[in-house]
Specification:
mainly alpha
């Protein structure tokens, strides 16, 4: 149960970082059809940030970066696409 609580705590802590990283990458690299590469860049940024957090085990950090962050990115991008914030290319 403690692991679940720590995963939730870390996930809550990184959501705003993920949102900001997605926005910055989209702004810096406005290239369509590069979603996988952009998602990987977000994961590297988030991993670098949470690797400095000593309060969480490596296992919990890995779970958040590899399993949760991509889902946050996917959900955020889908929402922005749905509302026309990110324009899909033809």
């Amino acid at each position: 149960m403690q692991k679940v609580i720590q995963i939730i705590q870390l996930t809550s802590a990184v959501i705003s970082l993920v949102v900001k990283a997605v926005e910055e990458i989209e702004s810096a690299i406005p290239v369509a059809k590069a979603g996988a590469e952009k998602c990987q860049a977000v994961m590297v940024i988030v991993k670098s940030a949470i690797d400095t957090v000593a309060d969480f085990s490596d296992d919990i950090k890995k779970t958040v970066v590899e399993k949760i962050v991509p889902n946050i990115v996917s959900t955020l991008v889908s929402l922005k696409n749905a509302f026309g914030i990110f324009k899909k290319s033809e």
